[in-house]
Amino acid sequence: MASANRTAFISGSARNIGRAIALRLARDGFNIIVNGSRDRDACEHVAAEVESIGVAAMVAMGDVGKSADVHAMAGEALERFGRVDVLVNNAAIRPQKKLLEMSDDDWDRVISVDLNGAFYLSRAFLPGMVEAGWGRIVNMAGMNAIHGYAGRAPVSAAKHGVWGLTKALGKEFAPAGITANVISPGPIRPDESGSEHAEHIRSQLSRIPVGRLGEPGDIAAMVSLLCGDDGGFICSQMIAVNGGTET
Questions:
Q1: What span, in angstroms and rounded, lies between the C-alpha atoms of 243 and 214?
Q2: What is the pLDDT along the chain (247 residues), one digit of tens a residue?
Q3: How far is 29 from 2, CA to CA, in rounded Å?
Q4: Beta bridge partners of residue 88, listed in sequence order
């Protein structure tokens, strides 16, 4: 079955990796739902790029860490397209803070966006996938899920939780024709040239055997494989796209 008339929801798709995934899946023939929580202009720009490829697009603004927002966005998406066939849980926040300086709200906010969001969105769109007998869920874990990092306890915990959620989803829904996998990106070239995070990413270059930082398109290419029919025998796996960086 071709991807024509199939629809993909990509959370956190206004820029960087999420934008690259949206454009790659659009080129694969998927209609695209662009999501962001604050910058509607950026989301609208990506939606326009998607439409220029020749498929349909819509913008769904909302905070994936809030169940009510997800419920509202899912309703809009299903009203427009009838079903969401592909879900890419890309939205995440990665604050740096020492554990003993962290408030309950600091912890809860990261868990809500980075872990609960994947659950809320999966729960919203899985019924349509089950009814269709076909679906793809791709989650993003990253190296936080593998290593755990000082100063990022809630991110590491949430991303490890996403890995567990992915394995469980794959086991539960594969019999219905739905696969679930998780991608662990390595150091990816950031758009923000002057930020502290960007400098940290560039400092990782010496650790990458292939000798370059990853590009958002490298992650999008793996998502494309997992979301196509050729990826149908890949399920419940964590796939590192990291240029050989030690995991």
A1: 7
A2: 456 689 999 999 999 999 999 999 999 999 999 999 999 999 999 999 999 999 999 999 999 999 999 999 999 999 999 999 999 999 999 888 999 999 999 999 999 999 999 999 999 999 999 999 999 999 999 776 677 777 789 999 999 999 999 999 999 999 999 999 999 998 888 776 555 566 666 677 878 899 898 999 999 999 999 999 999 999 999 999 999 887 5
A3: 8
A4: 10, 138
Cα–Cα distance for residue pair 34/14, rounded to 1 Å: 7
Q: Give the pTM.
A: 0.93
Domain boundaries, the chain: 7-241
Q: Which CATH architecture has domain 7-241?
A: 3-Layer(aba) Sandwich (3.40)
Q: Cα–Cα distances in Å, from 50 out to 1, 8, 15, 36, 65?
A: 21, 12, 13, 15, 25
